[in-house]
Task: structure prediction
Amino acid sequence: MNKQVEANMNVRGRSIGAILLDSGRLSMENAEKILRYQREHKVRFGEAAISLGILTDEDIQFALSDQYDYSYIQGADSRVSKDIIAAFNPFSPVAESMRALRSQLLIRWFSAEDKRFLCVVGDQRGDGRSFLAANLAVVFSQLGEKTLLVDADMRNPQLHALFGIENDKGLSTLLVGRASADEVSNKITGLLGLTVLPAGPIPPNPQELIAKCFGSQLIAWAKQSFDVVIIDTPAAAMYADAQAIASHAGGAVLVAREHVTEVTRLKQLAADISQVGAAVVGSVFNQF
Result:
């Protein structure tokens, strides 16, 4: 490598240029063009590259995420659904709103050592519980927290489809002792620190499994292995599972969907969660 180029591109560790060279997104010839333009116009490397039409905003975002250890998924070949917006487009308004929610939860809930579990609760199917739980888990993992996302909706599970993972074993098989925690845990490629536990085969007795085994099988294991545990739950208007899960988790975030969720139902849901001894940490008005 040209020594002048090398010196300019390695001011502080792996620079943007070095990252893009190593990833194959930038050639040495184009790197030299960018550096010449940068010196002449006294602009940042990324600005110079975009002005010359050599790199795109996506390329710069890719390099910045690597430089700051901020993991997200690049490329269209991932099995993860594009609905996991925080995983594919972490600089979007939706992802920013998830980070704002994360900040509130860190202050209001996860600041205490014994508060690692939080369930996402909503009244009806289609209110966005799985969307919120999945994206929230992603932004916690991007913060560097060892994060577990659990699909405890053993009525109508969604998370395995969102993350493109198998659902032949999961929470249900863990709770009945037919699989170990390691066997049902799924690391997600491109998202360091995130583990997803799917619901598994739908059992005939979800509520009984939660009441008898949720604390001993799931909570005990997750407490030893993760900093943050986000739990997706079934529709509270249809099943009592959410209240039982909230009692184990200790805290819940309520989800309301625009033009769908009735205020009276949301208030009743908050009362139901409080009645089982769990804290209602906050509520989210979902427009997505």
